[in-house]
Amino acid sequence: MSDTEIVLRLNAMGDILLTLPTLHAIAKRGIDLHMVIHGRWAQLGEFLPASIHYYNGTGSLIKLAGQLKKLHARAVFDLQGKLSTIALRSMLNAPITRVYQKRNLGEQLLAMRGKYPLRFSDQRPVWQKYGEVCGVNLDNPDASLNLSDDYLDACRKILQELGLQEKQFILLHPDASNPGKIIPEALLAALQDGMPQITALIGTSTDVLPSGINSLDLRNHFSLYHLPGIIHLATAVVSSDSGPMHLARAVGTPLVALFFQTCPSLGFAPIPADNVMVLSEPMPCKPCSLHGQNFACPEGHFACRNVEIPGTVAKIARFFKNFI
Hints:
Blueprint: E1 4-8, H1 13-17, H2 20-28, E2 32-38, E3 51-55, H3 61-69, E4 75-78, H4 83-92, E5 96-99, H5 105-112, H6 126-134, H7 149-162, E6 169-173, H8 185-194, E7 198-201, E8 216-217, H9 227-232, E9 236-240, H10 243-250, E10 255-259, E11 276-280, H11 309-321
Parallel strand pairs: 1-2, 1-4, 2-3, 4-5, 6-7, 6-9, 7-8, 9-10, 10-11
């Protein structure tokens, strides 16, 4: 039987990065490891510890399946569990096929109906569940991306062009895919003034910054390809619950992850490390959604977003001073 295994995890950035401990653990066994991700994340492909293949919509399925069939893989691990990966793994028909299930059907229905607070029976971190599906032990998880010296030198040149020095700035990532995850404006303003070094914003938003935000605006100043390196060269990162939050963890930069409408109990917190701090206020109504998609608070107050600003900023600043 072939010593080749295939991992399917197409989306999203954070979910792909949460596979890193599993990918490293499989590779350490001497397995010829291949991974399929969506083409929109192709700029991250070279940093992942596997041979990467790209899914580019249903029109690419047959060709992609043909390429993967030639590997004669002994195992396919579907960590997505959606129609696209169901079709792909069926075409491959590997001797060993295992599938990740986020939650049971009853829990999924409750989330779809907007019931809250969401309390799932299995609250283990997603990265641990991925390892279980793939049959690897993750007692000492390696969550790192592979960044070459030449690549980091190229990122240093970008910093020089932006007037920044390595390890002399703190990155703030306030944006997120859904409104309940975004860092509130008042907290963002306090963070830029309360950090032990100058701050710079990263992200892809094109919104005009509020008048009170005067951090260096690096949003859309470089590609996704260079984002891991820029984050690696920063002193620290404060991020919303988002893909760049997981990216900061993957490149070893001290991180504070802020959870508002969402909650670490859903399993999507960054992989633990000594230089990672997760801040999430426990509330009886939280989380009220899977992905922070509620524009309006079902309780009418949005207390999850009204954090105690001076204390929160002071706590973050004290934590970062351990790494400066």
